[in-house]
Design a protein that fits this description.
alpha+beta; 9-stranded mixed beta sheet; 6-stranded antiparallel beta sheet; 34 helices; disordered C terminus
Length: about 1500
């Protein structure tokens, strides 16, 4: 919106001096009509007038109400007419002045404003400086509701809410349905002078008292802004000249137009107030009123001197979108009768008009009996005619038309041509139709719409046909993905979408793509190690590769066009659509062609290409050429200017290197009588453009003065790619191009001693046959065509391209196609080379040497530079990834990688709201990739990320979408970010390299990721779990969170999304799919999945909900994304740093390189992820020498492997379940124990006794039955304790303070203790203090500040850089060998207030004695020394326990898992007063392992044990 070309276009004095209201005062209000090209003006005594167009020609004027009612306050516009507001009445009339209805009501005392409501234009709300508001039905013209109000309103404006300005400076935001106040905003101190709204913003101008309320209020030097979306005030926009009036621009949603009383206009952006434009008007008085037309092109000002002015651009101004002037009354017809009655006898009767009858005549035939005769016959498809057999009386054959015999066809309507292509149905609509059985009809409609008729004569039409007009993308509630691009393109060549900025370049990109030499240059450069950002040659290579791989009807060049915005000198070169001075598409694309060729040459010279084999063969070079020499041969016109002074004949040379040549047309010679006019050919115009001979005024260094200088260009070399700008400026030029066959398909060029000779047609054939001169033949590749259309449509660009030039085969070279953005059609050669002076003119013409047609060099794929995959761009960043190993991890066609990305929002959706309140999306929401994570999909480090890039976004970010992406402003801040922050080019290059290496991309819902990344991945390289787990014919895709919950028993995406977690989850889902397919249960699982999904609305139950809490889950606390292990540690481990409050030195870590492998450093990342449920695995202690790879689950128990138990594909925490030999999932104790999630605590697997999964304590994962099972297990444990005759050891009675403290802990640990009692397997408990400090988990029900303070101190992060070797030797919890011990912190006993339901922790301890739950100290695999079979002992004990209806107890511990360890109860029974029990436990531990008790003393660890 450029205000520099604004000028005053019209002025009218209303009320005029002869008007009866002239002395009453100036205009009371003004407004632009939103239907017709009218400006409405109201007077102080009830008159209203309308004026047409920029000239303000008078249209209508009539009285609204009696002059005693005061001025006309406001106008509202509907289809039927105009609604006028007076102080005591509301009046509606047609635009011609015919009244429709008028309302006067007793509650109308002093009306000031009115607005539409939620019902659109069928209902209005009127209010004023009175205590009642009234709702009026526009269709009926009556008051339907009265609403009391305590505020007096001066303005009402409707957007998403009704914004009402009071007379006290406040703005009330009213609900458009109930009219209740949603929000109140104090905008100004004294009054509001003007108010306007858009969809998201309120802007106001007003005044305040400067000193005290006794002083008069004056206007404020700013515009107040309120955000309706977030319901909060924004920073005011400064306006030093004192803002008096303000309007939001109707098309640019964040742009406001502010006016002061002197007529100074500021156009400013609310989000960037420093970016403003100023226009000075010169009204004769003080500006009282201001309004902007619906298009934003017209501005109206009214002053106190009765003048109303129209301001705008003289080149283009319309008040409405369509710009149709109102219908004027028919002029008075002259009388047909002669003035003298005596002349009637000589008057022919045909001059006398027929009379008008009010009743219907008998001769008026009803319309239903009128028949249409003489219609042309139906044309038969030539394909059908070829199948018919000719006879004497006609043709006979099968009926393939799809019509019945003798069926009537309305050929008149089918032969009518339309100016637009009918918009197709959305894909979602087609899917619904296909399910209802109308798929054949939809397919037939699509085929009929896309059938290309004989198009040889499209360009001969007087106006542009629909195929050349602008194609508009429609948006449904599913966004752009629901648009049927295939309707506009049934070819194999993808189009380019036009819903992004600078998309005018689409046509030029298509022409360059199908120029083989340019495509080869770009791809050979993109395959190098170039990481320059921006690099337009790389971006071109990415676009060309995307168009080559395109398997769909359309692509989009978002990255390329964004890079163009950040390229140096792009703004001053006039190639950026938003800020270019010249908005004409032909000028933009001409500037872009010269700009791109210049940048391409610079980028190509900077980095040597991957291969030059094609150029060496083409130019017959012996040695590999260097990049500058190749640029000269490919793109540069090597020449030298020879400038000759016409006075002194002095000649001065000057080098002249050009990449794009401009055509030069010879001056038209006058026709000589009797001589035939000389025909101008394209070759002559090309020769004149290449030599560029002209006489200009210039300074002669020899004459020392300005002289006429003859400038001529001496040519030494013509490039292999010849780009030409047509430079069509006159009607004579248009006439030349519109001559049929004027543009040749081939031209020949000879360069000889600085001169250029061009040939075409027969002359070219003659020189080729002679073979005397070294002539170079060029083939026409394509043209960029400017399609000029009449208003209101805008001119735009299309491309006509011979795609056969870029095909590998040389057959059928004439394969011309019309690329109209995403609409692609096959056209004939005649249509492609025919131009029309009225609407179709070429702007850029592209030629290439004929010898380069069908030539390709695919070395860039085999010699692709992959160094970016092994390079660490930020060595000091937080490491949440491990780079690939150059020796052992080389990606290839069989490599599976899992990917997920996170997005941020760059632009909000641009919508247009009509007068009915209906919104239409003009441009969709613009997203950009902010984080890309890629994890290994196979190998020893499967599941470990090797790419975790955060992208530095250069554009303005409007929303970080932190709730869904986990991205915060700090993450993308290049100064403060601790992430692996890279440029968009670097992040894209990694993914592009992986695509071209043939890697298979695995993920969930990858189509949206690829769309935002702007990359094309072939379908055979995509594994999408959202499609794998989709049951046909249903079109519903199930979310990743629900699939993880149902199939993996994991709870992901609790508070936000984490791309590493999502990628790992998709990988695990794919492994599950392979497992289901292997055992043939996939279809059954899919049926059960959809059945379960329908009952839950395909939403996983969340931990925080009441239902899941009742099922046994606790509160979820999320921790940071764990970094990968530091160099030197074992790969595939999970390291969890210990808090400084922990009593053991070192952190827990899990061995196993499965999916989900990650680690944590001393600095906790801010991106939250949740420890997954259902992935079991053994733990070791950090700082210890990791066990060998042979140490696995097989060594944990003598019968562990025989039972068929396997851990899930990767270990994320101990105590989780796995899969048995039956293929079913068996949950471990940690699957249903909230302690594994509360405060970061975890269960550690001690041993895996032989036997079925039930014998090992693995319980089927059934959350719905968890509560009942837990209660039954607790009761069984208590019964078993009583049967064995053991009585709980009861300590001393606690005092009152201790009892209160125990009750507080009871609320936090009650469910923890109950869960421990329910667990009947060999797992020990590691408290939260051993883990990295999570957030404090004091519940909302606690108000005790002291308890909250204690917990915050307990989990206060005190990070340090760990020295693992020093920790191993000096840790207080280590034995002689430096092996750390696992200690359990004491927890207070828990008692319930209810004696009947009391749960004494000592009872639990007694019950667990029968369970025998040892604690792992170190996972090792020593020699097993046992005289009896553990399996037999366990079997006998199981039979005994079954008889006693109690959980099975382990008879004997396996030395392989209890070596140098201590045994512990599963519950916290370490109270202060239980010294005797501790001594007994120590002796029992010594009985199990002779060294255990002594080592426990040395490590200062008191561990109770239970003898079997």
């Amino acid at each position: 919106m450029d205000s520099r070309d604004w000028t005053q276009l019209g002025c009218v004095a209303y009320p005029s001096p002869i008007h009866p209201d002239y002395h009453a005062g100036p205009a009371s209000t003004i407004a632009f009509d939103n239907q017709d090209e009218l400006l409405w003006i109201g007077t102080q005594k009830g008159f209203a007038g309308s004026f047409i167009g920029r000239e303000l020609k008078r249209f209508t004027a009539f009285r609204i109400h009696p002059e005693t009612d005061g001025p006309v306050r406001q106008f509202l516009f509907v289809d039927k007419g105009v609604i006028f507001l007076g102080s005591r009445s509301v009046y509606m009339a047609a635009r011609s002045g015919v009244p429709i209805w008028s309302i006067r009501h007793e509650s109308m005392q002093d009306l000031r404003a009115m607005s539409f409501t939620s019902k659109g234009t069928s209902e209005i709300l009127v209010a004023g400086w009175q205590n009642k508001m009234l709702v009026i039905d526009v269709n009926k013209g009556e008051v339907v509701k009265e609403l009391p109000t305590q505020d007096q309103y001066s303005f009402l404006k409707m957007s998403r809410y009704i914004c009402a300005a009071t007379n006290k400076g406040t703005v009330n935001i009213l609900d458009p349905i109930t009219f209740t106040i949603k929000k109140q905003w104090q905008a100004h101190g004294a009054f509001i002078n003007d108010l306007d709204t858009s969809n998201d913003f309120i802007v106001t101008c007003g005044g305040s008292h400067r000193q005290t309320h006794n002083t008069p209020a004056i206007l404020d030097p700013y515009v107040k802004v309120f955000d309706l979306k977030n319901m909060s005030a924004m920073n005011p926009v400064p306006f030093a000249p004192l803002a008096a009036h303000v309007r939001m621009h109707p098309r640019m949603l964040t742009t406001a137009i502010v006016v002061n009383q002197a007529g100074q206009i500021h156009v400013t952006d609310l989000l960037n107030p420093s970016n403003s434009q100023v226009c000075y008007t010169q009204p004769q008085g003080v500006v009282l009123h201001f309004d902007v037309s619906r298009t934003g092109e017209g501005k109206a000002l009214a002053d106190n001197k009765h003048n109303t002015y129209i301001w705008g651009s003289p080149n283009k101004i319309q008040f409405t979108e369509i710009g149709i002037p109102p219908r004027l009354p028919d002029p008075l017809q002259p009388s047909l009768l002669p003035p003298d009655p005596d002349m009637l006898d000589d008057l022919p009767l045909s001059r006398i008009g027929l009379p008008y009858y009010r009743e219907q005549l008998f001769s008026a035939l009803p319309p239903d009996i009128i028949s249409d005769v003489g219609a042309p016959p139906q044309q038969i498809d030539p394909n059908i005619l070829s199948t018919l057999t000719k006879t004497d009386w006609g043709y006979i054959g099968p009926n393939k038309t799809g019509l019945q015999r003798n069926q009537y066809i309305d050929t008149r309507s089918t032969m009518k041509t339309s100016n637009t292509i009918r918009a197709p149905k959305f894909l979602s609509e087609k899917a619904r139709e296909s399910q209802t059985g109308s798929e054949d009809n939809a397919l037939a409609t699509t085929e009929m719409a896309m059938t290309t008729p004989n198009n040889d004569h499209w360009s001969l039409r007087p106006e542009a046909p629909p195929e050349y007009r602008i194609c508009e993308i429609k948006y449904s509630k599913f966004g752009v993905d629901d648009f049927d691009f295939g309707f506009f393109n049934n070819t194999q060549y993808p189009g380019l979408e036009n819903n992004i900025t600078n998309s005018y370049a689409n046509s030029l990109l298509q022409v360059m793509h199908y120029t083989p030499l340019l495509r080869n240059m770009a791809l050979q450069h993109a395959a190098t190690a170039c990481l320059a950002d921006p690099c337009l040659l790389c971006e071109l290579g990415y676009v060309f590769d995307m168009l080559q791989k395109g398997e769909g009807p359309s692509c989009h060049a978002t990255n390329m066009l964004r890079a163009l915005n950040h390229t140096i000198n792009a703004s001053v070169s006039g190639v950026l659509e938003d800020i270019a001075k010249e908005k004409n598409p032909s000028t933009l694309v001409k500037n872009l062609t010269m700009f791109l060729f210049d940048k391409i040459s610079q980028d190509y010279k900077g980095t040597p290409p991957i291969s030059t084999e094609l150029e060496r063969t083409l130019f017959k070079l012996n040695q590999p050429p260097n990049p500058p020499d190749l640029v000269k041969r490919l793109l540069e016109t090597d020449a030298r200017y020879q400038i000759k002074c016409m006075h002194c004949q002095h000649v001065s040379p000057r080098t002249a290197t050009t990449f794009v040549n401009k055509l030069c047309y010879p001056a038209a010679k006058p026709n000589i009588r009797g001589m035939k006019a000389q025909r101008i050919t394209f070759s002559q115009v090309l020769k004149a453009g290449l030599e560029n001979e002209a006489v200009n005024k210039g300074y002669c260094t020899k004459c020392q003065r300005y002289q006429n200088l003859d400038q001529r260009k001496i040519i030494f070399n013509i490039p292999a790619v010849l780009a030409l700008c047509t430079e069509i400026t006159t009607a004579e030029h248009r006439k030349l191009w519109s001559t049929p066959g004027w543009l040749p398909e081939e031209i020949g060029i000879i360069v000889d001693q600085g001169h250029v000779y061009c040939y075409e047609g027969d002359d070219l054939k003659l020189h080729l046959n002679r073979g005397i001169h070294n002539i170079t033949v060029y083939s026409l590749v394509g043209t960029v065509v400017n399609v000029e259309t009449k208003s209101p449509q805008k001119s735009h660009l299309v491309a006509t391209v011979n795609v056969g030039r870029a095909e590998p085969e040389s057959k059928d070279q004439d394969r011309w196609h019309l690329f109209n953005d995403f609409s692609v059609r096959s056209i004939s050669k005649v249509e492609a080379l025919t131009f029309n002076a009225a609407w179709k003119m070429p702007v850029v013409v592209m030629f290439q040497v004929k010898a380069a047609n069908h030539r390709f060099n695919m070395d860039w794929k085999t010699r692709l530079d992959t160094s970016v995959l092994f390079r660490d761009n930020n060595p000091h960043a937080l490491k949440t990834y491990q780079l690939l190993d150059r020796e052992t991890e080389i990606p290839g066609p069989e490599t599976v990688i899992a990917i997920d990305t996170e997005f941020i929002r760059l632009k909000e959706r641009e919508i247009h709201i009509d007068e009915d309140g209906k919104s239409k999306t003009i441009r969709p929401i613009s997203h950009a990739i902010a984080r890309a994570s890629v994890v290994r999909g196979q190998g020893s480090r499967e599941g470990v990320a090797f790419i975790d890039d955060y992208i530095h976004i250069k554009e303005t970010i409007v929303d970080y979408l932190t709730e869904w992406s986990g991205i915060t402003p700090t993450d993308l801040d290049p100064i403060n970010s601790q992430r692996n922050l890279v440029s968009p080019k670097t992040a894209y290059k990694k993914l592009w390299v992986l695509v071209n290496l043939g890697c298979k991309f695995l993920g969930h819902g990858l189509s949206q990721d690829f769309r935002v990344i702007n990359i094309q991945v072939p379908r055979n390289q995509v594994i999408d779990t959202s499609i794998i787990f989709m049951k046909p014919p249903s079109q519903r895709k199930i979310s990743l969170a629900f699939l993880a919950w149902y199939l993996l028993k994991e709870d992901i995406q609790q508070n936000t999304h984490d791309s590493i977690e999502d990628a790992q989850t998709a990988l695990k889902l794919y492994r599950k799919y392979e497992e289901f397919m292997a055992n043939g249960s996939f279809h059954d699982v899919l049926e059960a999945l959809y059945k379960k999904g329908k009952t839950l609305n395909f939403k996983p139950p969340r931990i925080s909900t009441g239902a899941t809490k009742d099922a046994g889950f606790g509160a979820v606390h999320r921790v940071g994304t764990p970094p990968v292990p530091a160099p030197g540690t074992t790969e595939g481990t999970f390291e969890i740093p210990s808090s400084t409050t922990a009593t053991t030195g070192g952190a827990l870590s899990a061995t196993g390189g499965g999916v989900g492998s990650a680690s944590a450093s001393s600095s906790v990342p801010s991106t939250p992820v949740r420890k997954p449920i259902g992935l079991g695995g053994p733990f070791t202690v950090s700082g210890v020498v990791k066990p060998s790879p042979a140490t696995s689950l097989d060594n944990l128990g003598a019968g562990a492997v025989d039972t068929g138990f396997t851990t899930a594909a990767g270990t994320m925490g101990g105590g989780y379940g796995g899969y048995g030999t039956d293929g079913a999932y068996w949950g471990g104790p940690n699957d249903m124990a909230p302690t594994s999630m509360m405060g970061g605590s975890a269960f550690i697997p001690a041993r895996l006794p032989p036997g079925p999964p039930e014998a090992r304590g693995f319980i089927p994962y059934r959350p719905q039955a968890l509560a009942a099972e837990r209660e039954a297990a607790a009761a069984a444990a208590a019964a078993a304790s009583n049967d064995n005759g053991s009585s709980p050891a009861v300590g001393e009675e606690p005092v009152d303070e201790e009892l209160e403290e125990q009750k507080k802990w009871q609320k936090l640990d009650g469910e923890v203790s109950a869960s421990r009692a329910a667990v009947v397997c060999g797992y020990g408990y590691i408290p939260a203090a051993q883990f990295s400090p999570p957030p404090p988990f004091v519940g909302e029900e606690f108000d005790d500040d002291e308890l909250r303070r204690q917990q915050e101190e307990l989990f206060a992060p005190e990070y340090y850089t760990p020295d693992f070797e020093q920790d191993r030797l000096e840790a207080p919890g280590c034995d002689e060998e430096g092996s750390p011990l696992v200690q359990e912190l004491p927890s207070p006993a828990i008692e319930d207030d209810d004696d009947s339901n009391s749960l004494v922790i000592e009872e639990v301890s007694s019950a667990v004695k029968q369970v025998y739950s040892p604690v792992v100290k170190e996972v090792a695999s020593p020699a097993v020394s046992s005289s009896s079979s553990p399996a037999a002992a366990v079997g006998e004990e199981e039979e005994k326990q079954k008889d006693e209806d109690s959980p099975p107890a382990v008879k004997e511990a396996s030395p392989s898992t209890v070596e140098k360890g201590a045994c512990s109860s599963s519950s916290s029974t370490f109270a202060e007063g239980q010294g005797e029990q501790e001594e007994e436990a120590s002796s029992s531990a010594a009985a199990v392992d002779g060294d255990g008790g002594e080592q426990g003393k040395q490590g200062e660890v008191s561990v109770p044990a239970v003898a079997p």
